[in-house]
Design brief:
This protein has about 475 residues and is mostly helical. Strands 1-2 form a two-stranded antiparallel sheet. A hairpin with a 2-residue loop joins strand 1 and strand 2. Helix 6 runs antiparallel to helix 7. Its EC number is 7.1.1.9.
């Protein structure tokens, strides 16, 4: 009997992810503009930087990334397990429950209802809803794995399983709090303990949402788009256990030069350096999978999106451990260099991976074999690359300059530069950051337009060869694949 897979829920998650990607990045672009032109907050308490910044991070991380991971994980676990979902009704409860979380975030954060914790700003009633929805998602995913019709569990499902379990554990522990009223609560932890628990969550939210989850997604789609098997399945398992073993300990590198005990700081530094091994091993594995089909790589921009994502992953996992070393941390901490590092990973690794999946996956979900315009895919690719380069390089230069100016002293011990001097220095780099971000967002808009045209055309038109389609539509002056 042929297995019938549930694709409708997957479509909903993927399209919702696409919408949140645009919304979250538009808010980020608005914030970048405010940093150079503060007047753009229009003297409003609701759209000033402090309130919109968590809306930007929540929109991108919990809107764009979590939706695409939920959608692709439910697709991949069905296909690789040769079975349908554990419970279709539960899948819709997860979908609508998660969208309710995002809508509540959209309402409460601009109103100033926040716990003030990084990546955990939402207040306690929403935290409870997140935990409930996440447990339902876990039951749905692992229930589907349990009913699989094959003995083997594909490696992508290992990464998805790890990201589901670890995020649930660290989110719940970090958000243990004492409610004061419906819109305010206080953490049960205090002082350095609160900081340690927060960065156990904060860094591993990056490590298991933006890294392990995306890796799981890519371990399925990179072989698909490359039309080749994973270069080394054994290396992918080593990659998995290396990340699980080292990443969960690295969060305290955010607390170097703080009141946290030195041994805890040193543990975070050592584990950060050890992360080089599994991270670069995984990047090498994906890179070699893509390079195993060099002919297709020469002209397939979806493969090039994946290739770029892997290279940015290697760059970010080189830079991150370096920034954990005390000497580098002394210069970089609290500067724009950290923002440049985060966004070179978020835009280069996470977003480029997401774009590649959108381009490859969305047409196939709707029965199309190719995109409406290959030329627009190419334009998006180069706009994204130029945007990331301008963005990251500007913040690297601005951040290193900031760190130097803050540390520079006269012989008598007085500061050589005032804080205003450092702000004046970094101002032009804030403008460059906005320009780079604008180019990146323009690329996203082009992608959405291209995907819209792809899905709006009849299947028969898109499944023709580009040359045939050009000849058939030449009398109307239209060419569907440019």
């Amino acid at each position: 009997m042929e297995t019938t897979y549930d694709m409708k829920i997957v479509k909903y998650f993927i399209i919702t992810s696409l919408i949140w990607a645009l919304l979250g990045m538009l808010v980020g672009l608005m914030l970048a503009a405010q940093l150079y032109w503060p007047v753009l907050n229009f003297n409003s308490e609701y759209i000033q930087f402090g309130r919109l910044r968590p809306l930007h991070t929540s929109g991108v991380i919990f809107g764009f990334v979590v939706n695409i991971l939920m959608g692709t994980s439910l697709y991949i676990v069905q296909r690789t397990s040769k079975t349908d979902l554990f419970n279709k009704s539960l899948s819709w409860m997860v979908y609508w429950g998660w969208q309710l979380v995002l809508v509540l975030a959209l309402i409460t954060l601009p109103l100033g209802f926040t716990s003030s914790k990084e990546y955990a700003e939402l207040e306690w009633p929403i935290d409870i809803l997140i935990a409930v929805v996440w447990v339902m998602y876990a039951i749905l995913f692992f229930g589907t794995v349990a009913k699989r019709k094959v003995k083997h569990i594909f490696v992508a499902n290992w990464f998805f399983g790890a990201f589901i379990i670890v995020i649930a554990m660290i989110f719940i522990i970090n958000n243990l709090e004492i409610p004061v009223n419906w819109t305010k609560s206080y953490s049960i932890y205090a002082g350095t303990q609160d900081a340690i628990v927060q960065w156990w969550w904060g860094h591993n939210a990056v490590g298991f949402l933006l890294t392990a989850g995306i890796i799981g997604m890519n371990y399925y789609f990179i072989p698909k788009v490359s039309e080749r098997p994973i270069y080394s399945y054994r290396l992918s398992i080593v990659h998995f256990w290396g990340l699980v073993g080292f990443y969960t300990w690295a969060g305290t590198h955010h607390l170097v030069y703080s009141s946290v005990s030195d041994w805890i700081q040193n543990l975070g530094i050592i584990m950060s350096l050890l992360l080089w091994l599994p991270s670069w091993g995984g990047a090498f594995n994906s890179l070699m999978t893509l390079l195993s089909n060099k002919e297709k790589l020469k002209h397939d921009y979806v493969m090039l999106f994946f290739l770029s994502a892997v290279l940015y992953y290697a760059l970010a996992t080189l830079e991150g451990p370096l920034l954990a070393i005390r000497w580098f941390n002394m210069i970089a901490h609290n500067t724009e260099w950290i923002v440049g590092h985060v966004h070179s990973a978020a835009l280069g690794w996470v977003a480029m991976s997401g774009f590649a999946v959108f381009y490859y996956f969305i047409p196939r979900l709707w029965g199309r074999e190719q995109m409406w315009s290959r030329r627009l895919v190419k334009w998006h690719f180069w706009l994204a690359h130029i945007g990331i380069a301008i963005y990251a390089v500007a913040l690297w230069i601005g951040g290193i300059g900031q760190g130097y100016m803050w540390l520079k002293q006269h012989p008598d011990g007085s500061l050589a530069y005032s804080f205003v001097d450092s702000m004046n220095f970094v101002a032009p780099w804030m403008l460059a950051r906005f320009i780079g971000g604008a180019l990146f967002v323009v690329g996203v808009i082009i992608m959405i337009y291209n995907l819209y045209k792809t899905l709006s055309l009849p299947i028969s038109a898109l499944n023709q060869s580009p040359k045939t389609r050009e000849l058939e539509n030449s009398d109307e002056g239209k060419v569907y694949v440019k």
